[in-house]
Design goal:
By secondary structure, the chain is of the alpha/beta class. The chain is built from 7 helices and 11 strands.
């Protein structure tokens, strides 16, 4: 089994998520900042930034952004992409654990994109990550993240999915399946990824991610304990709606007390 977020995962990551609508997600972040912020959200901390696509897009939109990730291989990809960009501004990337890092600086907004909070599977880890958020938010600043919505995870359940991506000279394949652990509010997602060239397999990787899902009142309690007030929980594709039992991913927005 390949270590999570290692070299193999990092070099496949952007290909696997090439269909992810990063621009739309950045639109949603800016709409949430406008709706619940005080109009001065220009400095942003992205905790769990991965290969840095959100960081670079938000930088191009005029924000001053620092990205933090625990995986050196993911940051290597992010820095290589940043070196090739032609946009204005210079995004920064820092290696660190979101449960413990201290940049000794406060931001207008702190983000955890693409279910990063869900990788904190123990209550103590969730609380530690939110303490990091509080430490880095200015009074009145906003915390925005997306998480798996517990009611839907339990109602619908995980499915088996296969993705095939065309690459120069071949294809990248990934199969994913999940198993729930309802006592710990987690889903073990097992990935099997392989490449083919002319129909012949050239490499194979297996990896397992344990993801936590969250319920609304649980989120409100975690945020309150961290000194933040919940502003909204809404579907990722509709900021004006309430989540239903068909809503797998939700935005969560909270404000640090002044």
């Amino acid at each position: 089994m390949t270590p999570v977020f290692g070299n193999d995962y990092a070099r496949q990551y952007d290909a696997l998520y090439g269909d992810k609508n990063y621009s739309s997600e950045c639109d949603a972040v800016e709409l949430l900042l406008a709706r619940f912020g005080d109009g001065s959200s220009t400095s942003v901390l992205d905790l769990g930034c991965g290969t840095g696509t959100h960081v670079m897009m938000l930088t191009d939109r005029g924000h001053s952004v620092i990205g933090v990730d625990v995986a050196p291989a993911m940051l290597d990809v992010a820095r290589a992409k940043a070196a090739l960009r032609t946009g204005s501004g210079a995004p920064q990337f820092v290696e660190g654990d979101i449960r413990t890092i201290n940049l000794a600086h406060q931001f207008d907004a702190v983000l955890m994109m693409f279910a990063v909070l869900g990788y904190q599977t123990r209550n103590a880890d969730v609380a530690a990550a939110l303490r990091t958020v509080r430490m880095h938010l200015r009074p009145g600043g906003l915390f925005i993240c997306d998480v798996w919505f517990g009611p839907t995870v339990l109602s619908v359940g995980p499915s088996h999915r296969v993705k095939v991506i065309d690459e120069p000279g071949g294809q990248l394949h990934r199969a994913a399946s999940g198993r729930l652990d309802v006592m710990h509010q987690t889903c073990l997602v097992e990935y099997e990824t392989w490449r083919t060239r002319d129909g012949i397999e050239t490499e194979r990787m297996m990896e397992a991610h344990t993801m936590r899902y969250f319920h609304p009142l649980e989120l409100e309690l975690f945020l309150s304990d961290a000194g933040m007030e919940l502003c909204t929980i809404c579907p990722v594709n509709d900021l004006d709606a309430e989540p239903g039992l068909d809503t797998w991913n939700v935005w969560v927005c909270a404000r640090l007390a002044r």
